[in-house]
Amino acid sequence: MKSTAAGVALLLLVLSHSSAKEITQTCWKCSGADCDDPVSSLCSQYSADDGCYTLFNYYTNVTAMGCQSDLDEEFVDDYFHSLLFCNESNCNSLDNLPVPHKCLFCDSSEDPNCATDPSKIELIGNCGVLPYSSCQTRISIEGWTQRSCLSSLERDELEECLAGTGNCTVCTGDYCNREIYPADR
């Protein structure tokens, strides 16, 4: 009987410690004018795949920050191109905001150099639409090479590039999408 009571007590102790450790995600939180001075707090609806988010408006200002688990799916669908997600505690800091980059803009269906000699491409775009200001190079379904700002992609293409599941590569830095893609092309 003593060993059963000790076993139950040990099990309860383990469960209470594991439950306390589940809520470990913290994010910077704010809304509107409060985003000049966000506050770090625990994610109240924490789940194992939780992350932090930053919401930008059309003028690239931060309009909200918080925990991804606080957003409903409809909101994420409506504002996907304006939301930046990250996975570590407090990763949505104002110190970690993306910056604009200059990227090549071309499509090999219009200019073969886009695929074979991107150094000859002269059309440069200023990718300042936050949060997706990085450059990208992708191969379209038709087999054309396309280079542009990440923010210019349609949602399904953007999700594939961000997840690394599409036929694309994402890079950060001015003119970083000037490399041949794929390398063996």
TrEMBL record:
What is the recorded name of this protein?
A: Uncharacterized protein isoform X1
By its UniProt entry, which InterPro entries does this protein fall under?
DUF753 (IPR008472)
UniProt source species: Drosophila suzukii (Spotted-wing drosophila fruit fly)
The alphabetical list of record keywords is: Signal
Q: Which domain of life is it from?
A: Eukaryota
Ranges for domain DUF753 come to: 25-92, 102-177
Signal peptide as annotated in the record: 1-20
> What gene, per UniProt, encodes this protein?
LOC108014225
